[in-house]
Amino acid sequence: MKVVTTENIAGHKILEVKGPVFGLIVRSRGIGGDIMAGLKSLVGGEIKQYTVMLEDARKQALDRMIANASEMGANSIVMMRFDSGEIANNMSEIVAYGTAVVIEEL
Fold first, then answer.
1. What is the DSSP string of 17-46?
2. CATH classification of the domain holding 30
3. Would you indicate the residue range of the signal peptide (predicted)?
4. Alpha carbon 41 to its chain's center
5. Are 82 and 5 a contacting pair, CB within 8 Å?
6. Which H or E run includes 76?
7. What's the order of all strands across the beta sheet hosting 12-28?
């Protein structure tokens, strides 16, 4: 499945718009990650535990969005975006969203 952030896909024609699709995940940092991050924040630099957690969450949200589009009969997603937020003090929400379409090569 092609997933792009643009409105169109070069060399392809959109035949049908299936509609909006999304993939959502909420992840908790956990006490161990919070302790390590707290210590790292004292000296500065990247907090790798959070970087890894957010990279994994984005991948899972993307996979869920693609599965959603497949169930709708789409073969591509255009105008894909990520959004994120925080829930309570230790949870992060990641959503991948876009428009599911059916395309054909020109």
1. EEEEEEEEEEEE--HHHHHHHHHHHHH-S-
2. 3.30.110.70
3. none
4. 26
5. no
6. strand 76-87
7. 2-3, 76-87, 91-105, 12-28
Rounded to whole angstroms, how far apart are CA atoms 77 and 98?
Answer: 6
Q: For residue 99, count other CB atoms closer than 10 A to its CB.
A: 18
| C-alpha–C-alpha distance, residues 102 and 72, integer Å | 10
Q: Answer whether 103's CB lies under 8 Å from 2's CB.
A: yes
- Structural domain including 46 reads 2-105
Distance (Å, rounded) from C-alpha 42 to C-alpha 35? 11
Q: Mark the ranges of the chain whose per-residue pLDDT is less than 70.
A: 29-45
Judge contact between 62 and 97, C-beta under 8 A: no
C-alpha 96/C-alpha 69 separation (Å) is 12
Element (H, E) at 94: strand 91-105
